[in-house]
Amino acid sequence: MNMDQGKTSRHSIKKVKRLKKWLTYLVMSLLAIFFMFPIVFMLMSSIKNNEYQVVTDMSSLRAFLPVGELGFQNYKDVFTSQHFGHVMFNSVFIMITTVVIGLFVNSMIAYALARLRFKGKTFLLSSIISLIIIPFESVAIPLLVMVNHLPWFGGETSWLDSYHVQIIPFIADAFSIFLFYQFFIDIPKDLEEAALIDGASHFGIYWKIVLPLSKPIFATVAILQALNSWNRFMWPLMVTRGTDVRPLTVGIQSYFGQDPRLWGDLMAFASLITIPVLIVFLLFQKWFVRSVASTGIKG
Amino acid sequence: MIGQKQIQPTIPKYRRKESLTAWLFSTPAIILLTLFLLVPFVWAIWLSFTNQRLIPNPNLPTEFVGLRNYIRIFQDDTFKRGLLNNFYFIAVVVPIQTSLALVLAMLINQQLKGMNIFRTIYFGPVVTAMTVVSIVWTLLYNPGEGLINAFLQAISFGKLGPYNWLMDTKLVFPAIMLLSIWQGVGFQMVIYLAGLQEIPHSLYEAAQVDGANSWQQFKNITLPQLRNTTIFVVLSTTIMAFKLFDQVQVMTNGGPQNASMTTMVYVVEMGWGQLKVGYASAISIVFFIIVLFVSLIQRYLTREKGSAA
């Protein structure tokens, strides 16, 4: 650039840059406070044994500080009065089953669509892609009528109040199939052809060649499906009664609906739902971010 | 030539096997999608023309009622209020959430130390269940002694508030919007971040050589390059806004006086609460048509310029 530029102006450019940097950090920190304060508040309130204190502390910064009568009484209450352990098991069980079976079912059809030649493939693929548009919400009510009358093993005539009613409808997912399909179609064919010549079956190729190469997309779909399952609320609200098979989201909502509202207990319940997910998120952060970014791929 | 003659008969057999495997691999997903998405969807259309109830009343057999449900929907003030609220939500939340997501993405996309920490913090609410978020914010919105009231009073030297957020027909919906943005913006931020990282750096370098300032670079490079990302973010946020349910159901159940009613809350109230499955199905179909319309706009807009993939 201009060689005549004096040292002073270069100096001031540097100064402006540094000022800009600190200003950026200031803005970002304020935003960080905005995104963190409810979570910090929840955690702090959950360890305050005195119900009254939880509410009165809100008028000052004490809301965010571990002050006053501290302990784990709220947590104990949630475990004893709300059967927390059992409800937690329900959520974890439903999530793991849905995700694991879903990974197989969705990746296998995607593998067929992406790698195998068969009649009706184009039609099947475009049908799956158009199914992405149908939101679950628009079929929830007819599905409720349907599961109310579906038979199950052992002569049961309704799916209500069961685990399977919360698992089976969510195993196949058109969007997950689409994500798998996009990934599989980019895998080079050479490996597969070599294996075919060696006499490997298609299932063998899927299992031994495609699966190991596709860990990233499996992680992506698993995270998206797990989050969806963990946070699912409307459907379990409609199909479960009592604490037997109810997941955490419905559990905390029904506790929230009881009078009087014990805020300390509620914050402990909320923390117990949030902490495990936050830990998993912190451990696998890159994968979470990648999963969400992949939803932005347009169809 | 001789070799080909020997191979050719084996190809159809091999093809048949491949075809069979393909259908075998596809069957579980096809059955599940048909049974739990396609069938209920088609059935929703059928039910919407009947007066079916969730628990059939033996004295009142289910009848075909023609367009009665649809005619009633558009005379139903609660439904209209719910749909209007969805549009209200879109009008406020979509612009705010989209621009905030872009600002956040641009902030953490800088080559500065500690950006990962900020990304983690901004994204944190996304992994928090909406039911949990709703309950924590209900406490924050506590009338009188709530934290949000205390904060407003502190920064306004006692001039603002205290407000009765969730019981006030004018404030309840904006209050729900605020926590929805808080929970959801990190998701869009990450999508924008992915979009930003795909913009070739050379574009900015060329602009700098031409002497373009930061604003010009933003206006002439960043925004046009993010066109498809923005369309995606805007329209997917719009669709999510039509699905608005969890936070309303937990916090207010649509109240007070339907001030926070939404389409989905009303569908569930009709179909599950009042067992009027036929009527709820008709609302579901209207809801679906709206979502379909938005999705088609999205597909049309992102296909138009035909950029790769």
TrEMBL record, chain A:
Query: What are the alphabetically sorted keywords of the record?
Result: Cell membrane, Membrane, Transmembrane, Transmembrane helix, Transport
Q: Which GO terms describe its biological process?
A: transmembrane transport
Q: Which SUPFAM superfamilies match?
A: MetI-like
Give the transmembrane region(s).
22-44, 87-111, 123-147, 167-184, 205-227, 266-284
InterPro entries reported in the protein's UniProt record: MetI-like (IPR000515), MetI-like_sf (IPR035906)
Q: Where in the cell is it found?
A: Cell membrane
UniProt topology in membrane: Multi-pass membrane protein
The similarity comment for this entry is: Belongs to the binding-protein-dependent transport system permease family.
Q: Which PROSITE patterns match?
A: ABC_TM1
Q: What is this protein called?
A: Carbohydrate ABC transporter membrane protein 2 (CUT1 family)
The record places domain ABC transmembrane type-1 at 88-284
* Pfam families the record matches: BPD_transp_1 (PF00528)
From TrEMBL, chain B:
One biological-process term from Gene Ontology?
A: transmembrane transport
Please list the residue ranges annotated as the ABC transmembrane type-1 domain.
83-298
Its membrane topology: Multi-pass membrane protein
Q: Does the record's keyword annotation contain Transmembrane?
A: yes
Q: Mind telling me which CDD domains this protein's record contains?
A: TM_PBP2
Where does the UniProt annotation locate this protein? Cell membrane
Q: Where are the transmembrane segments?
A: 20-46, 87-108, 120-140, 171-194, 226-245, 277-297
Q: Which keywords does this chain's UniProt record carry?
A: Cell membrane, Membrane, Transmembrane, Transmembrane helix, Transport
The record's GO CC annotations read: plasma membrane
Protein's UniProt keywords contain Cell inner membrane: no
Which family would the database say this protein is a member of? Belongs to the binding-protein-dependent transport system permease family.
The protein depicted here goes by the name Carbohydrate ABC transporter membrane protein 1 (CUT1 family)
Q: Which organism is it from?
A: Pelolinea submarina
